[in-house]
Design goal:
The protein is an all-alpha fold. The protein folds into two domains: 62 residues; 45 residues. 77% of the residues lie in helices and 0% in strands. The protein is built from six helices and no strands. Helix 1 packs antiparallel against helix 2. It is extended, with a radius of gyration of 18 Å. The model has no long low-confidence stretch (mean pLDDT 84). This is Cytochrome P450. It comes from Popillia japonica (Japanese beetle). Keywords: Monooxygenase, Oxidoreductase.
Amino acid sequence: METFVFYLNILLDVFNIQADVFVENLLEESHKGNVDIYPLAERLTLDIICVTIMGTSVNAQNDNDCKYQKCVQTLVEICLDRAISPILANNLYYIIFFYKYIQKGNICY
């Protein structure tokens, strides 16, 4: 039981730190007028996942041009395209339309 509480405290610390950064970014954006919260929430989620699961920080919330975030976004788009399009489900068309090489380039980040 003590181990669970120890890990829960670590997770709560990570959530609180990342949430503070999120709120700061949200306040900065709110001075500009209308705020699109999706990119901010996306970067928050990426930071929390990377710190809690992989043990490393990518600092996506403070870096608008985070290369890791762009690679993940590209890979998700490729997976969705392959799932939706019957043509791309075929490996031959997947290679012909260069999705394979785009995916390989983003995985090697």
